[in-house]
Design brief:
alpha+beta, flat, ten-stranded antiparallel sheet, single chain, five-stranded mixed sheet, 598 residues, Rossmann fold
């Protein structure tokens, strides 16, 4: 017998053994232990502990009748079955069915099922139980897996979930219920959009205002005193915590009637544009109709702004000034009137002091402040004259220091959030605190020593083991503005090499080395950094000799004159400090007298 015949014979033998094994044995030799009977809805011999779940989706008083009818109906249903015992009626009123959020009665019912207190749940329909397919199927499966299992009876659809064939029907119907909610959500959003386009805005309760029969906001003078006091105190320099403590002491009431105030409540009042007569509609939106989580609207949806919609309690100038103060509070600035100072004379004419603690100044503010002091008849670019007998070095260049070692050099590195200085920088000026000055038009950054108490001071050095070493300087308030001003990429780092002239360090922002992460150039090379240089460096080695010589001969020791550049009418025209304290004291006095007489 050859190899193939042996293989075939072996396979036939295996098949014969399998056939013999599956003939089985005599059934009379097997003892069958019967399974417990399946739980039936209409089992007359089994007492079932029944829970009723009822829900209406809004808390409108008109829905109360529907709510009560559901409860009364199912009380009658349970009473009509002799072997049914009512455990409780679990009812959620004014709650959506697309999410379990705030459905306290539903969650309590599920927990009671897990604790073995319930055998059967009865509800009107799948949509009453849940409009979310995932939630519906999950809870039905979890209840069926309990010991003993808990059934759900959906009356309208006649679905009993312990029936093995129920899940397909339940999945289909719950999908329809979810899609119905989706459709209603889309219709509601479209309706709101149409209202806003026509200037028909929602007017929820707001401190300082009542609503007339047409929904218009009408000033409530008693509450308006509280609003004015909040704004005036914040403008004067009080923190939200201090304002909250003062209002609690004065026993002033929130819109909800509470007499205990918090910083969050004060901040909500300060940020509500309706207090200055405007309306901004759709500050938040709900991206997912299933979870109902609201999200801040960062131009994800249309917004609608209407000026002078109603009578204001606070002037628009005061409101804008407050918003700027709030946006800058995280940088520790408490100045009522932040200033942008520019030098008006001398060699530093046109240089603007960088306000390191106020983020609201824009790149254009710095540029306009500089231009305001520039002389249109400046002849700094006039031809160089060489005296008789001197070497004529026109056409010669002073080579850039970047072409040589950086050891012992003055340089700094900018990133979007901080600045790092070389040791030579701090050694040259020998001062722990410095100020930044910038010439946006010529792209020059200057650094000079200053006192700690200077409004724009930055600590750039510290003592370590008896030595003065550089300290990284954070710049969240002003660096984004500088990056915008110079057209820099926030994702990159920029290295500047500078020189010392008198008591200043100067850095030319046009001579910048750029550090680019390798990953931005090649996705297959995620580590490392590439150093890039300006394209025009290919054409030259540095600045012209006479340009460099002229700049080194300039005297920077004379104290320059600083003037304030007016950048924002709102900050200039808001209530003066004198009027603020007068108004604050006047309102407080009135409120204290009222509390005393009550």
């Amino acid at each position: 017998m050859n190899e193939s015949e042996e293989k075939l014979s072996s396979q036939e033998l295996k098949k014969a053994k399998i056939r013999e094994r599956y003939k089985g044995i005599n059934p009379e030799e097997i003892e069958v232990i019967p399974a417990m009977p399946q739980i039936r809805l209409d089992d007359p011999d089994r007492v079932q502990r029944v829970a009723v779940y009822a829900r209406v989706s809004t808390d409108d008083p008109n829905q109360t009748s529907s709510y009560e009818l559901q409860k009364n109906h199912y009380q009658d249903v349970v009473n009509s079955h002799m072997n049914w015992v009512l455990v409780d009626i679990y009812a959620d009123e004014g709650i959506s069915g697309t999410s379990l959020k705030h459905r306290d009665a539903f969650i309590r019912m599920i927990n009671d099922c897990k604790d073995g207190k319930i055998d059967l749940i009865i509800t009107k329909s799948v949509s009453r139980f849940a409009r979310n397919v995932v939630d519906c199927i999950k809870h039905v499966r979890d209840l069926a897996a309990l010991t003993p299992p808990v059934a759900v009876l959906f009356e309208t659809e006649n679905i009993y979930t312990l029936n093995p064939n129920s899940e397909m029907s339940l999945s289909f119907i719950s999908t329809l219920a979810q899609e119905e909610s989706h459709t209603k959500s889309e219709i509601m959003n479209a309706s709101i959009e149409m209202r806003f386009k026509r200037g028909i805005f929602l007017t929820p309760p707001l401190l300082g205002y009542d609503r007339d029969d047409d929904g218009n906001l009408i000033i409530n003078e008693e509450e308006a005193r509280t609003v004015r006091l909040i704004f005036f105190m914040y403008l004067y320099g009080f923190s939200t915590k201090e304002i909250a403590e003062e209002l609690t002491l004065l026993k002033r009431r929130t819109k909800k009637g509470n007499t205990t105030w918090s910083s969050g409540t004060i901040l909500n009042v300060l940020q509500n544009e309706r207090h200055c007569g405007d309306i901004l509609a759709r500050k938040t939106f709900t991206p997912n109709f299933l979870d109902h989580k609201s999200k801040k609207n960062n131009q994800d949806r249309n917004q609608y702004h209407k000026k002078d919609h109603h009578e204001p309690i606070i002037s628009r100038e005061d409101f804008i000034a407050v918003q700027k103060l709030i946006s800058n509070a995280k940088y520790g600035t408490k100045d009522l009137m932040p200033k942008l100072n520019v030098i008006s004379d001398g060699s530093l004419k046109g240089y603007v002091l960088v306000n390191t603690r106020w983020s609201a100044f824009t790149a254009n503010d710095y540029l306009q402040a500089c231009i305001s002091q520039l002389d249109p008849d400046d002849n700094s670019d006039s031809p160089v004259k060489v005296n008789s007998g001197d070497f004529d070095l026109r056409g010669f260049e002073v080579a850039r220091s970047q072409f040589f070692t950086t050891l012992g050099k003055v340089f700094l590195t900018f990133s979007f959030r901080k600045i790092r200085f070389s040791s030579e920088c701090v050694r040259k000026l020998d001062s722990p605190y410095v100020e930044f000055l910038i010439h946006p038009y010529e792209h020059i950054l200057a650094i000079r020593p200053c006192n700690k108490d200077s409004k724009n001071s930055l600590q750039w050095s510290k003592k370590s083991d008896g030595k003065t070493v550089p300290k990284d300087v954070s710049g969240s308030a002003y660096l984004p503005t500088l990056f915008e001003l110079f057209g820099w990429n926030p994702d990159l780092k920029y290295k500047l090499t500078g020189t010392k002239k008198d008591s200043y360090l100067f850095f030319d922002l046009s001579d910048t080395e750029v550090f680019i992460p390798s990953s931005k150039l090649d996705k297959n090379n995620p580590t490392g950094t590439v150093v890039a240089y300006p394209k025009d460096w290919v054409q030259n080695f540095g600045d012209e000799y006479y340009k460099t010589k002229t700049s080194t001969e300039v005297n920077y020791t004379t104290s320059p004159t600083e003037i304030t550049y007016k950048t924002d009418d709102a900050l200039e025209n808001c209530t003066s400090p004198e009027d603020l304290i007068k108004n604050i004291n006047g309102i407080k006095e009135t409120l204290y007298e009222r509390n005393t007489t009550q």
